[in-house]
Amino acid sequence: MLKKPILFVSMLAVTACTVGPNYTKPGLPVPAAFAGPAPAGQAIDPARWWEAFGDPALTGLIDRALKDNPDMATAASRVRQARLGEIQARAQYKPTVNADANVTDVRFSKNAGFSSLARAFSGGGGSGSGSGSGTAGGVALPGDSIMTYAVGFDASWELDIFGGGRRGVEAALARTEAAEWNRRDAAVTLAAEVADAYFALRLDQDQIAVLNSEIERQGRALQISGNIAKVGLVPAIDVTRQNGNITATRARLEPLKADLDVRKHALGVLLGQNPEDLLGELSGTLPALAATPAIPAGLPSDLLRRRPDIRAAERNLAAATADIGVATADLYPKFSLTGMAQLISTSLATLFTGDSLQLTGTGAATFPLFDWGRRKATVGVRKEQREQAYQAYRATVLQALRDVEDALTRIDAERRRNALLRQALADADRSAGADLARYKAGLVAQDTVINTQIDVLRARENLAASDAQLRQQTAALFKAMGGGWSAE
Length: 488
What we know:
Elements: H1 3-15, H2 56-68, H3 70-91, E1 96-107, H4 113-122, E2 145-159, H5 164-230, H6 237-251, H7 253-270, H8 300-306, H9 308-329, E3 334-345, E4 357-366, H10 374-440, H11 446-480
Helix pairs in contact: 2-5, 3-5, 5-6, 5-7, 5-9, 5-11, 9-10, 10-11
């Protein structure tokens, strides 16, 4: 009895195949080296690049953000969801087994056609007692009822002859890997955003310090002007003019203080906290900023392995390729096996006996004949989705190359600009000192002193802004190279 089903399953297993294209990772041409000027520097661990800045406050902020940021929690949830999708895909074409139990009570109509047949077999007669027992021949009389008890198991199995299930598992695995790379990409982006906001905050602090220092410097100049005016060497208007210059400098402090709080709010949200939670923590004296590290850019080929968004795009392409096989399998017949074993009896006393056993086996095949082209159109849709995934992969690689090239170019230009600004500040300081000495001797007007003071202030502000931009652009280069994640 069992030889035919076993032979049938064996034949199907031998003839099983996997339809759809096999995935091959595409090879995209990349340049041998970056065109932008690569700085010479020591190798830095890209997984924790922020430590190269030597700022424990920055390191602490990024570590806390990676732990508590809502976007990171969402990305981790998507990884867990994708892994559950793997379980679903693996289970789709495996046998399923169910257990069932039921009690059925059927009361027969006195007026139905079956009642006449019951009377013929029973020799007529009135209605039964309704106790669940039939009359002669086991046929219930009209108005009687039969109660049936049943327990059993049923198993079904749709055979994955043409590999649609195997392609589905391939797609699920690829999507899990893509979700993992997207989680790492979220870490890369988050670390860069925290660093950018932190360096902007430090710029506000530096600008405030510059203005406060300049206000003290101008205050000393005001005192000198007042002393000279008292002895009648300069007009009193010089004192008023110098005092106005100090007032204008103080007015510039207020928007900087407001922006400083805004930066703290931004960092608080990035750390998964309320916007105001970091106001007190970042109000104290922060450690002095070290020199901006110089980092080698590496090779463009390394970028394809390091950038999480590139790896995620490649895995999405693999999943889209497997989806073609899933859709193609629907063009072919489907085969399924179903078996059922039940114990059925009209009495609980005889339910668990050999005479109550009832077995059922079914082999079924479904052949697609005519669906107005729906299945073929689905295959075509999957092929177009694969093409879109390939173009998205290409675009991601090109954008990654551009990100690195842009960052290298900006850093190189900013380094040269920073050196010039330092020279300009030194020149402005010497000029201001000389003009102040000549003003004390009565050789120049006060306007000259005020103008040189403004030049010094502008030079110091420009240098502070350049230092901050250099740090932010270095963080952007680390992000462009895919730094900020580890295999752990």
